[in-house]
Design brief:
The complex is a heterodimer of chains A (144) and B (115). Chain A is an alpha+beta fold and 144 residues long. Chain A is built from three helices and five strands, in the order βααββαββ. The model of chain A has no long low-confidence stretch (mean pLDDT 93). Chain B has one domain (4-114): Transcription Regulator spoIIAA (2-Layer Sandwich), CATH 3.30.750.24. The chains are: A alpha+beta (144), B alpha/beta (115).
Chain lengths: 144, 115
């Protein structure tokens, strides 16, 4: 398998969120995704990095966020890791439920799942890793 | 590109022309402060022109929702104008397209306020 890997270790700041989004969009563009798909991948990575900086590391200057990209002819895989207290993705409220529709927050992970083909969470102790995969068209799971 | 907001008044409607990115941090704060200022001046009809908004993240969506509810709770109305395809798609995905009153041209939007 012909894979290219690149990794960034970032501070727990908003500037890192922009950096991660920009890097994701660049990697996606180089991988051949179209403009709309690049935008969606960029937003998914932005939302994951926001979660890592805000909810994971809580802007702690002593904690880092690691954003890694791996690209193959078949897919782009992005991993965002924080050093926080952990996250239970099963306990997240559904932002589409009528009682949550007008809430100000709680849409980040929903958007990540909407924009990426596969999303997995892993507890790191300490921290959380979210792994997001986008398949290159024609290499979707189960396609012939 | 950071976000910019400028306000004008047409036929009793406060129109806010927004441009740039409404994202966590500066963009969301600009939107929040602009709507808050208009509300504090007693504006009850607020139209957000998103025609030049190039990007909104989940924080920006949250800020739009917050602006909508705060204006409504103060007895006013907030409508959206000129959504780009990206913003339109985001509001569809999050089921907020039916929550907001979305207008496609300024004249119709002003009429909708004054009906």
């Amino acid at each position: 398998m012909n894979a290219t890997r690149i990794s960034y270790t970032l501070d727990s700041t908003l500037a890192s969120v922009n950096k991660a989004e920009q890097a994701a969009t660049e990697v996606a563009t180089k991988s051949g995704f179209d403009e709309d798909e690049c935008g969606r991948i960029g937003m998914a990575v932005r939302e994951a990095t926001v979660n890592a900086v805000l909810h994971g590391n809580k802007y702690d200057a002593g904690k880092r966020v690691t954003v890694s990209f791996e690209t193959t002819p078949e897919a782009m895989t992005v991993s965002v890791r924080d050093e926080g207290m952990g996250l239970d993705p099963t306990g997240l409220p559904n932002p589409l439920a009528p009682e949550n529709l007008l809430k100000q927050s709680g849409r980040g992970i929903f958007l990540i799942r909407a924009f990426m083909d596969e999303v997995r969470f892993r507890s790191l102790q300490p921290g959380t890793e979210i792994m997001m995969i986008k398949h290159v068209r024609g290499h979707d799971r189960g396609s012939s | 590109m950071s976000m910019k907001a400028s306000s004008r008044k047409v036929d009793g409607v406060a129109i806010v022309d927004l441009s740039g990115r409404i994202t966590l941090g500066e963009g969301s704060v600009v939107l929040r402060d602009t709507v808050k200022e208009l509300s504090s001046k007693g504006e009850k009809k607020i139209l957000l022109n998103l025609g030049d908004v190039t990007y909104i993240d989940s924080s920006g969506i949250g800020e739009l929702v917050s602006a909508f509810t705060s204006v409504r709770n103060a007895g006013g109305e907030l409508k959206l104008l000129n959504l780009t395809k990206k913003v339109h798609d985001l509001l569809q995905i999050t089921k907020l397209y039916t929550v907001f009153d979305v207008q496609e041209d300024e004249a119709s939007a002003i009429q909708a306020f004054n009906r």
